[in-house]
Amino acid sequence: MASQSQLRGRKGKGPALSGPSLEPYEEEDDHAGSGVNQSRRQSSLERTLNSDKASIAIVGVLTALAFITRFYKINHPDQVVFDEVHFGKFAAHYIQREYYFDVHPPFAKLLFGLAGWFVGFDGHFQFENIGDSYTTAHVPYVGMRALPAILGSLTVPIVYAIMKESGYSSVVSAFSAILILFDNAHVAQSRLILLDATLIFFMCLTIYSYIRFRKYRFKEFSQEWWGWMIATGVFMACTWASKVNGILTVVCIGCAVLVDLWDLLDYRKSSMERFRNHFFARAVGFILVPLIVYLSFFWMHFAVLTNSGPGDSFMSPAFQETLRGNELLLNSQEIRYFDTVTIKHKNTKVFLHSHEDRYPLKYEDGRISSQGQQVTGYGHPDSNNHWQIIPTKALPETGRARVVRHDDIVQLLHVNTESYLLTHDVASPLMPTNQEFTAWPKDDLSRYNDTLFQLHLVDAHEGEAWKSKSGHFRLVHVPTKVSMWTYQNQLPDWAFKQQEINGNKNAAEKTATWYVDEIVDSESDPSLPDRTGDTPPQEPKKMNFFKKFAELQILMLQHNAGLTASHPYASSPINWPFLLSGISFWTNADEQKQIYLIGNIVSWWTCVTAIAVFIGIIGADLLARRRNIEPIPDPVRNRLWNNTGFFILVWAVHYFPFFLMSRQLFIHHYLPSHVASALVAGSVLHYILSDDTLNYPISVRGDTMRPKRQTYADLGMRGPIALLGFTFSLLFFYIYIAPLTYGTPGLDGNQVNARRLLSTWTLHFAAKVTDGA
Amino acid sequence: MHRPSQVAIPVGDLREEDSLSDFEEVPYPTHTTNSWTVNQEELPLHYMTEEKARRRVPKAPAGNGLHDDKAEAFDDGGRDAYNKIGSVKGNMGGGRLRRPPPPPPATFTEFLQQNLEHIPPVVYTLLSCWTRFHKIGKSPYVIWDEAHFGKFGSHYLKREFYFDVHPPLGKMLVGLAGLLSGYDGSFEFKSGEQYPDTVPYVAMRVLMAMFGVVMVPLGWYTAVELGMSWWACHLVAIMVLCDVAWLCISRFILLDSMLLCFTFTTVFALTKFHNQQYQSFTFDWWLWLAFTGLSIGCVMSVKWIGLFVTALVGLYTIEDLWEKFGDVRMSVQDQLRHWGARIACLIVLPILVYMASFKMHFLVLNHSGPGDSQMSSLFQANLVGNDFAKNPLDIAYGSKLTLKNMGWGGGLLHSHVQTYPVGSNQQQVTCYHYKDDNNDWIIVPRWDEPEYDPDGPLRFLQDGDVIRLQHASTTRNLHSHTIPAPISKLNNEVSCYGNATIGDFHDYWVVEVVDDIKRGRKDRFENIHSLTTRLRFKHEDSGCYLRAANAILPQWGFKQVEVSCDKENNPNDIHTYWNVESHWNDRLPAGDAKFYKSPFLRDFIHLNVAMWTSNNALIPDPDKEDILASKPTDWPWLRLGLRMCGWGDTQTKYYLLGTPVIWWGSTASLFVFLTALGVYLLRQQRKYVDMEPREWEHFLYVGKIAFVGWFLHYFPFMIMGRVTYVHHYLPTLYFSVLLLAHLLDHFIFSSRRLSEQTKRIAFGVCTFIIVGTFWWFRGVAFGIDGPINDYWGLGWRESWNIYNL
Fold it and tell me: Do both A283 and A341 map to the same domain?
């Protein structure tokens, strides 16, 4: 018996009013019903094409073609191309087990590392520049490129399968697959050591599994239902772990699940208990499982990368100490009073520096300085970088009390000029809002208070000892509460173009972080080992995986948002669906060869037209329905909403967020959306050709459902003819653009001009049109 | 279930507590004046009727949305009655309940009683006058942006053309205020300077503060039109009255009081129009629709931020029309009339108002002034005090000239000693919008030709000539090469290189004549004239064209417009067209040209593009910390205030800071609203009934106006690149204040569960907190004298820089 309040609160039409018992809701597959042109028999052509054998044959041909297009001359060029600079290098780091930092999650890169290891790559080649030769360095690059090529090839049959599972005929499914198969952008992107092929492959698998899962919705909690749900979750995690943009796939499945749950919440469809079961099942399948999978990749990432490498300096000191051979681990020492140290700025890597020269009395803009000794940031080792730490309290002769600690107040003595670091309320040379830093002679005690600085260690607990290398700190001036700060801006010639150092009034400024680079000299204390030299290697420290993960994840997000530098081939999202611009991946001036990432214009324009047509159909239908006219029969309309609408959702979720991003964007960010738009194109083609006929049923029938008659979609001869037409034009343009995709053969100027189908494509080696003028 | 008999309940059937006013939907017997006067005490003051109407469904015994059978039956009947209200039953209901017009008053007492409802707003208006005008002239100094807007007002009085990023209406009103108060426009409005006796700044401030005064009654009547309860209307008025940020910003010579005022009128007109929805095409309906359009036009002509409230009206209209579209009983003519009415009143009318304000702007400012160079050369030539007409007409070698880009919002070709930090590192070439010696260029012959001889025969410039352009002050030559330009990476960089003796063939430019505005096609004339001939400059070596298309250089280029060399030869690209503006040549006779008028539409577009470009150049400079600027995420939490003047001990100090409880409360209401909406929707999906349909529609309608309005006024700032300040949130705040009042109304004042006593207490507590906080912080708006640190308890948040540290 359901609780009293629940029943009483429910009011309105429907069976619930009639009594307290909840009648089992009879589920209906809303794709069935009257109004469809019910062709219960298929034409013989249709039947042959849709038979399992024919389907397998079609998949076979498509897959074979996919492998041929992706593997054709995969060894060319034998040089580093575009972002292979990054991703090749990361693979090398995995093999060398050196820690690196990147904005993308590790899964796809781990796969590359694995592929490299598999084909015997030793990780010594560093992929420094575009155009570096692989052959001279003996890098088994073909093996590494084979991985994305295989995944890229397998994407084609998966696209076919998605369409097939969605209830479309073989012809329509093949159409969608061919849009991807003969697309130059997909081919070019899959043949190189880049992450996108992996991303797209797993994205397609996610969509495929989700559709399979949805088809079991009338057999809830069955084994298959669970299986496909968990598969969706796992693939989703793989997509996300391949590249940051994979998060969009997660968002997209999330939206679909929410819509689904909202539907289940309807009181006519399910009791609260059923809803609760569904809710928790999905929480497991779509949240818990993916999270575990996603985390496990990071776990592997950390497990493989145990040595110090180029990524160290991004991480916190505690993290760095977990890496074998890390400088912090080797050389981090406690700092004691009267030690002489060099101090480095964390972001700009300059030393705190001072020299005899003084600030000019008057600056160019007419402001006046204190004419004190200059304090600047200097990038190179120099004895003028040496500062001694002077206590402001009485110290015992020996022992732990001589260690400098968090929140201690100290003076910094510039050793060469015998003067103390000081700041005061005088505007700095370049920033009137900030305070000038200068140095004051040691003997002059009149400014004693202005030479006092408090040492704030970052994330430190009370009484924590200050350590070289790892002890990041802010130096806050005691009387005026400014932080010693510097930024990338050079002082004029009077300061030898060294970097300005000033006092930032925001004492908690994050970029005002410094660390002690080295202890140059220390007072001899017989009880201590010599701390200025190297110490024997230490065992790496342990750190909680979740802490490591959280730290890395936050850094990735920050750096991803920070990729704002302009790039000649960056393009804005509005250009993408129309294929207005590409990316020059690689050029070879001698033979006039180039790789230019650009899609097949027929494929892309078909896709974008299909989206427009779909929106047009739905819009017209909505308008008509508003006026009580129903131009599309319900089952067909439901199919359009539920299936094509889902593809549109995938497309939109993978596309529109880019409009909000301020980071640099490239056309290859559109490739996942392009796949989705190919799916849309297939279903729109079906709608246009099928005369409101549907394949029904496609979902697995539930136990409580009444069996309904099967119906078939009937495309007749139109389907194969349309398919052939598209295939030929796609193939034609594919081959025409192929020299830009494969980077071979070389093209002369006029041939390049001929292939510049849109004036916005920026190809190399174009002949001058204006030659004659 | 259907009980028609209940619809037409005879009055006699009612129980004692269901007074007549419950059924205000049933038309009164309005013609029988007698009965009216008899029932005087039943006068349908709208807030009372509203109050009771909401309680039409009797209190449910359990109180949590549950109904017993009786309630249900009653409720059904009630719903039917509501359905009879209008012809359309859509989800556009929810405004103020309709009420028939009262009969004409027979006696004075009657008149008073009929207008009782207007007494509170009158009281609030008087209070508002007091707060807005109190000690308004206390600080005789130029405070904050008075330096800008006062100055612009002066320009109108002096009739000198100036340029600013904001549309002209607000500044014209400042000028008008100056005119009315007898100011002659002679003061420069330097920031922080003391007003001389000749400037009637108090009168000007008072006139500006009028707009602020109006906000309070507008807030009240908007709440009334939104169908809020009596309590909630009071709260809205009190919050509008007591917010110190609104108060503070209204007391100076600024545009914000006008922007706020017109935002308020727009919302008011919209709600008023909404309540006319069942009397389409009546006089009132047209009145309020047209008033909405007028108000939109005004708000957009004050600041472009007005676009956001326009978007709100747009969304409302789309939803409204969608409803109408679904009404199959409505005739096609009516549908078209609805569409036509909206297009005329909400699109055409505002655009006309906007353009009219520019027309006025051009009419008033007919003298040459500091903003000249933003406009096209022809426009400038028509300004009084401009001597372009005296320029020599024909261009010859050796002429010194300035080149004006003819694209919308184009500037003068400019170069200065600073170099590009990227690319070639040579001297920068930009487009600049102010007159300056660095805009001067000299036409000299090619390197392989004999040097220009000042005594030799005159050689006029012809179409197709290959020339060098020498920058007059640095003697460097205009130069281009195949290095990508700093912003438009696909174009070549343009720089200045060499000097009078050093240079190469990269300095050669081919002069291509397009046509002449006066003389027509290029084959009809020979010599190139200043001002009217349209030219293009082609780089001879690389074949690219000199182009400036409003791309802004970063700080190193002083936010000036990038000049590049476009490899695509697009003969129709207006951004590659140039004309000679100023022209100096001692050897040529001064011209005496008569110019064609510059067409208004051209000037209008030109000025708007220039405003847009300058507005886009207002991006935060990463190298320079602007302590006044704040981020949109700071505003709802009132993280930062803004010092509006110097902070010395002897100065009167004003601090732009909201009343914290209002800001925090309204921000909290956003979250509460979303949560409540989510919970209600979830419960609806489970078929719980929390409200009757009309209540639900009312909840949605007011919520939509307030929340969508807030969102539209807030979110665009998040993606905007330009630098933002806390006063950008002030129009936004209004919507969250409405939402706060709406939620208090929904959960407390219109609740069926709470007793009148509780409501009174709740209202008292809210009012006390708001007024108390206002009183606590009144100083920041009225002006604080003496050392700020002597005032205790103002630093409620550590991030406020109200105290000197």
Answer: no
Q: Would you call B686 and A5 a contact, using CB atoms and an 8 Å cutoff?
A: no
What is the spatial distance between Cα A190 and Cα A71, in angstroms, rounded to a whole number? 9
Q: Specify whether A331 is located in the same domain as A273.
A: no
Q: Are B368 and B386 in contact (CB under 8 A)?
A: yes
Question: B685, A267: Cβ pair inside 8 Å?
Answer: yes
Task: Report which DSSP code applies to A641.
Answer: I
What number of other Cβ atoms are within 10 A of residue B265's Cβ? 24
Within a domain: residue A21? no
> Interhelix angle for A170-181 vs A718-742, to 10°?
10
Whether B517 contacts B378, CB under 8 Å = yes
CA-to-CA dists, residue A171 to A44, A50, A614, A684, B235, angstroms: 14, 8, 19, 13, 66
Residues of B with CB under 8 A from a CB of A: 65-67, 72, 322, 325-326, 328, 484, 487, 489-490, 543, 568-569, 623-625, 627, 682, 685-689, 719, 805
Do A341 and A453 fall within a single domain?
A: yes
Level-2 CATH architecture, domain B386-590: Trefoil (2.80)
Predicted local confidence at residue A525, as pLDDT:
58
**Residue from B325, B542, B687 whose CB has the most chain A CBs within 10 Å, to mutate:** B687
Query: Which among A266, A489, A626 is the nearest to B685, CB-wise?
Result: A266
Sequence spans of domains, chain B:
126-359+638-646+649-790, 386-590
**A763 → chain B, closest CA residue:** B490
Top residue of A11, A348, A485, A580 to mutate, by most chain B CBs within 10 Å, is A11
Mark the ranges of chain A whose per-residue pLDDT is less than 70: 1-42, 523-538, 565-566, 768-773
Is A446 within 8 Å of chain B by CB? no
What is the predicted pLDDT for the residue at B621?
64
**In a shared domain, residues A510 and A587:** no
Q: Look at residue A108 in the predicted model and tell me its pLDDT.
A: 93
Residue among A9, A762, A770 whose CB faces B66 most closely: A9
Q: What is the pLDDT of residue A526?
A: 54
**What's the number of domains chain A is made of?**
2
A660 touching B (Cβ < 8 Å): yes
For residues A636 and A618, is the Cβ–Cβ distance under 8 A? no
Domain limit, last residue, from A495, A526, A557: A526
The pLDDT averaged over each successive group of 10 residues in chain B (805 residues) is 42 41 41 37 39 37 37 32 36 65 82 86 95 91 89 92 92 93 88 88 93 95 92 94 94 93 96 89 93 95 93 94 88 92 95 95 91 86 83 87 86 88 86 87 87 84 88 89 84 87 86 85 82 88 87 83 86 88 85 78 90 81 68 90 85 90 95 95 88 89 95 90 88 96 93 90 95 93 88 87 81
Pick among A656, A770, A771 to test the B interface (most B CBs inside 10 A) = A770
Looking at the fold, whether A464 and A590 belong to one and the same domain comes out as no
Assembly ipTM:
0.74
Interface of A with B in 598-657 (CB under 8 A): 623, 626-628
Task: Give the CATH number of the domain where residue A449 resides.
Answer: 2.80.10.50
The answer on A151 and A57 residing in a single domain is: yes
The residue count for chain B = 805
Residue numbers in A near B67 (CB within 8 A): 11
Chain A closest CA to B543's CA: distance in Å?
7
According to the model, what pLDDT value does residue B353 have? Answer: 96
Give the domain extent around A393.
327-526
Maximum distance among all alpha carbons in chain A? Answer: 105
Nearest chain A residue to B681 by CA distance is A262
Residues A237 and A158 placed together within one structural domain of the fold: yes
Is residue A690 located within the same domain as residue A599? yes
**Chain A contact set for B682 (CB, 8 A):** 265
As a whole number of angstroms, the distance between CA B26 and CA B157 comes to: 57
What's the rounded Cα separation, in Å, for the pair A456 and A466?
Answer: 10
Contact (CB, 8 A) for A121 and A143: yes
